[in-house]
């Protein structure tokens, strides 16, 4: 089978890590029976500066009509407000209805601060909340006032919670087959702030709970837990090993996933996938890092893992597992690490070290 | 001078720590020339269950008409949505226009994870953002939809940033007088998400910047920095020693301060003050902790430090400094620590150990 993959490097180090993503797909063992074809697509702040649009229609149309999946690098945000510019990845998530942003965070090795292995995943709603970007500004009695809408729907809350439940099931299955002994409780933690936002976050909380109470989750022993978002951040930093799947509205998910990344040492390790029905875009969680661009020192691991995630959500679990395993081996051996990990290896050296483990 | 202090224990361990707060005020050295009188006031979920209102008008009126400051313990949130209940502390902040929530976070001793001393303060806007609690729910084509308003005003953004600048000035002055050598850069970091919320968070960002560019801050060498909220959480966990004053809209401030608390070991250490013009309410950052209530094991340190903060904002810096120093001595000696800190001391034992250092 040939999968057609859109490549959207974006800005900065996106242009170094996305080629690494392409390369690992091409290097997958032939025994998997997978073939790939690629199409290069534009988006980002550079694109905006050149053409006046950050996300060209051609990019969206090609993804919709030709592609099975895609890889997205990173985009630079303008350092001063720039008229007409708005984030292409946020737009892409909405235009392709990629309603879930899945961000697994896994520790490499025990540390003094975190002796127990961290292995959690944040499942972030990806289409609504404050990201609907409906804002207005008006003159009040004491100067300007601006308002934004936070929108939470039953539909989006239900499908993201269902996705979280399915991910909990899949993770439990994989855990049981690899280390039948781990004994980690399969659990989904619903994050919200319904003590203040009783209607919006109250709807998220209640809908997520109902979705997760479905018998296929409860019969399989998936526990449901809740945390208020501020307390979730606190707990995530105090006892990260206790968590499995965390489901959250868009903005809390954004904040929690950067927080979780800090726990495992570097944003350069943390992948994500933007997932819709039958489509997935892999995207490293890090930014465009203009300070290190062009030096071949960006950490490609987040992108390689994002390739794995994309494959997983395209139904290619075996190929995904190959990538995860090769990456884990690279990290635990620790011979070829990029500078953010305290190593000296170039982007391409890390990549080749991962590939040679296939 | 006699200061009249309202005491609002609220629920759970609030009823154990607020008496400790009263006791430390009474125990302050007479040489300070301060006297206190107290008035007990109701608020909280218990109050709601007994009377149908969580924040009685009498409490608000007494604070307004009779008091110079107050101490607030903690309130329990109902575990299921409860009609008519809404958080009394959120209401109190708005009704008394306590527009700043000031949350200093300071490490006790270097740890393996954080070898450099952490000493930062989060200055959280306390009256608007999503906390305006203007919500509505309607039927959409695919089920219920709920919306909340996030409101950001120029006026509130400007005064909170000015407050942050003033706190940075005061901190620098205190640092210079106690350890002329620390060399820590005085700095205010503006936290926002204007890459997504260009109008609301854009207004916060721009207004805060303008307020902090006033010559009395810039002439004193207060640096202005910015961080997008997700990246702020990441950086706060990676390099907390780099930060001094962090100013943020209400909700980000709420999340960031719980995150910062996790860095220094326990929420039981972290104080706050809700500050308006000429009035301040000290409030420990922790919750009502019903699981440990009534056992005399709650950590009183957050409350004792909140008493210090309250005094600081009522212009009693010398008295505040006495409390901070006694608390720091208790912690660094480490002989009387409560169970959350790995110790065995009772609430009252920690309190007496602090007091005996006056
Ligand atoms: C760049 C920004 C718009 C984006 C977001 O907020 O979703 C980023 O932080 C992310 O997490 O992918
Ligand atoms: C209890 C809750 C309403 C409150 C808040 O969100 O402000 C608390 O988390 C706090 O930080 O004081």
TrEMBL record, chains A, B:
Its cofactor is Mg(2+). Keywords: Amino-acid biosynthesis, Lysine biosynthesis, Magnesium, Metal-binding, NAD, Oxidoreductase, Phosphoprotein. It catalyses: (2R,3S)-homoisocitrate + NAD(+) = 2-oxoadipate + CO2 + NADH. It comes from the Eukaryota. GO terms for molecular function: homoisocitrate dehydrogenase activity; isocitrate dehydrogenase (NAD+) activity; magnesium ion binding; NAD binding. Residues 4-354 form the Isopropylmalate dehydrogenase-like domain. It is an enzyme of class 1 (oxidoreductase). PROSITE patterns: IDH_IMDH. Its EC number is 1.1.1.87. SMART domains: Iso_dh. PANTHER family: DECARBOXYLATING DEHYDROGENASES-ISOCITRATE, ISOPROPYLMALATE, TARTRATE (PTHR11835), HOMOISOCITRATE DEHYDROGENASE, MITOCHONDRIAL (PTHR11835:SF48). Belongs to the isocitrate and isopropylmalate dehydrogenases family. This is homoisocitrate dehydrogenase.
